[in-house]
Amino acid sequence: MNPVQQAVVWLNDPLNWTNPGGILDRLGEHLSMSALAVLLGCLVAWPIGLWLGHTGRGGGLVLLVSNVTLAIPTLALLTILPLTFLGFGRPAVVVALAVFAVPPLLANAYTGVRQADPEARDAARGMGLSGGQVLRRVELPLAVPYLAAGFRTAAVQVVATAALASFVNGGGLGQIIRAGFGLDIAAGGGQIIAGGVLVAGLSLLVEGALALVERAVTPRPLRRARRVANRRAADATAGV
Amino acid sequence: MSLHLSYRAAPGNPWFSWQYVRDNSDTILAALREHTWLTARAVLIAALVALPLAVAAYWFRSLAGPILALTGVLYTVPSLALFAFLAPYLGIGAITVLTVVALYALLVIVRNALAGLNQVPPEVREAAEGMGYGRWGRLFRIELPLALPGILTGVRLATVSTVALVTVGVVVGRGGLGQLIFAGFQNNFYKAQIMTGTVLCVLLALVLDLILAGVGRVLTPWLRGRNS
Fold first, then answer.
1. Does the complex come out with an ipTM higher than 0.90?
2. Which residues of chain A have a CB within 8 Å of the CB of B157?
3. Which residue of B has its CA nearest to A239?
């Protein structure tokens, strides 16, 4: 039997799905830690990004954050954070993943506010709105397409990176792949490929679902801007 | 003397230790060398494959959509999953790591090179055509030099992310400095070893990025003095 056939057999065994530590358990872990990490990333990155965009300062900082995090290996953060005050377990893994969610969220929040039409901003100020009101009522709504694009990029990245949590026994679908590698490659080949299919499938699914969400939360007149935002988001992941 | 003895008695678990670096310089250097070597080969292979792809997508517009869509989908696939797909066929070893990291580097370079080529102003292309340049002459004399900043950005990004990505190679036992980090984690969570591996990783990325930035300055003398 070649590895692909083995993988099909492995995926067709119901016990591999329902056992403790089976696919369903791992999927739950994967999704819950990804969701927490993205939430944490949003709570940190959005306020900072919006504020920096509003004041027009800190463009260099945004760029620096995305460049530095690009150079830090995920494995390093996953192994270092449990040894700090965070301690072993879920919080350390979530924080490590959140660090990698920050750059796209931050960059898109910043660009989203910066690209708001200066005339709209001037008009709002002329109507007597204060700085905070301009941010809340004018710049924030106009930045929504960018925020959504950043959210999508960050979420996909976190779901993909969460597979690496298995290196420190942090759970998630990556655990299935690691267990397969733990067996002999001839015996575990099927399980390794099956795990790969699950991890990759989940990432693509999240990407597709969030693309629909992104479309839904973008008001129709801003759909054209959304396409630009998508391109910007791709650049942001690439770190440009 | 007593100070020395007490240090010996309770070595603790410091974040950094010269003692560790001195005692294990061979292992550390071997890991660093493997990491650098893997990164260099991966980026070189990726660049050699990516440039013709980018040019093909630039010349034949109908190819651009599929190539960008394919790279987009591949970029979404997590690195561990790619290792999982390739390891049963390529085996446990450096070749698997090399293939995976080269694939990701490829995606980054193709996208940036294509963006660079698309930024060549149409007037310039028409002028070149009017001067009698053929398709290849125009490519090598006009379009590729003008796209060089974009291409170099792609190569730099690919290099930095490849340095970080090679560490995932521990899953097949060939992660370069990642091997050091992972071993430190498994050997009673030895912080000094983890930190040494991490710092070297980040430094390697920084040094390679600076070298490439320098190469870029030398290759594009006409951009000097304008902006960085």
1. no
2. 70, 238-240
3. B157
